[in-house]
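Following up on my earlier message about zinc ion. Here are the inputs again, as you asked, copied directly from the submission form:
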Amino acid sequence: MSKESVAENLKALNSPAPAAAFGGSGEPGQLPDAMRTPEAQATINATIAEAVRSVFASLAPMFASMALTPEKIAEAEKIRRAPDPATVARELRERKLMQQDLAEAEQQKREQQNACPHQYPTGQLTWHVIRNFPDRQARFSCPLCALWVTPREWRIAAPDAENPRGRAFIAEEHPLYREASRVLASKGI
Ligand SMILES: [Zn+2]
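Thanks, got it. Here's what our run produced:
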């Protein structure tokens, strides 16, 4: 449809309706003389008003269902933000796999540490001494199995509701601490 014809159509909206719409043959928009009485006019007005009212009454439920309530907006937002189920499933699967791998590696390290003699083939103890701790107690480490041996010491655990900076607690000494401490005498340090 060209621009001119659109303008023509819009112009037609402003002009009066054709006379045929009122069933008369006189001037456009004029009622027949027989209907030009106050009573007839009142009847026509009432009929039109009733028709318009009934049309809007029947549309009311549709308007109500079309209304954008906050609940509907929230619901739509929730659907829009909902993650893709396939992505979520994949992340859960990969996380589970990673946890299994970590647990397996931890288990292997533990088995290796349990089997380690913490001695070189010559019989010399392997314990390395680490002394630069603020509580002045020595720590020991085995270079063969990466075992870390601690005395009874303060530790900071993960934060909780009462301890936002971490929960401090005293950890008991490592079962091998006394045994590892013997290296101090044998090395004379
Ligand atoms: Zn070891």
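One observation from looking it over: The longest strand covers residues 139-142. Hope that helps, and feel free to reply on this thread.
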